[in-house]
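*** Residues and shapes ***
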Amino acid sequence: MAKISTEKRRLYIETAYGEPCVEALKDIGARWDADRRAWWVGVGKRERVEEILSQVGASDVEAGRLAKDRENILGRATFGGHSYYVVGRGTNERGDWVRLMFRDGSKSFFKSLADVEVTKIYQRPTTLERLREFAEQMRVERELEADPTAPYVESCDECGASYKTEGNVWDEGMSCRRCG
């Protein structure tokens, strides 16, 4: 949640990176103070700032951040013996950092790059939904390789996805689950 402080004729608003209130603060004329690492407006806008901050709850901030993270997966990493998706990276005064997201997309957090092993960087960012679809496709293909008597796997002409069919039949013009 944002923190408000006053210094002389300025009202400083300290926010977490990516908070939804930032856009609303910019709309009322807030400026970034790099030395203070906070947004500021004139003290006369205090009431408006408090109104903006009251409209944006902490859960809204995290939900908005997670929605963005799920649409911008850059790669994979391990931290503390667990596997995560890399959803951001950069450098600040403390050094290099990465933003990691749980594999189920439920939560994301920052860590120092020195504490994390980045195991794969994708050629271009992908989404959590695409990764889930890919995992399902790989699971079906592994299943077929493990049991050649399993139902036949067909490939969709439109999107190329592989799916098991019932009774080894793929009707002409049939669509896969992805294409509908």
Remarks:
- The mean pLDDT is 80.
- The CA atoms of residues 151 and 167 lie 6 Å apart.
- The longest strand covers residues 82-92.
- The first helix runs from residue 21 to 27.
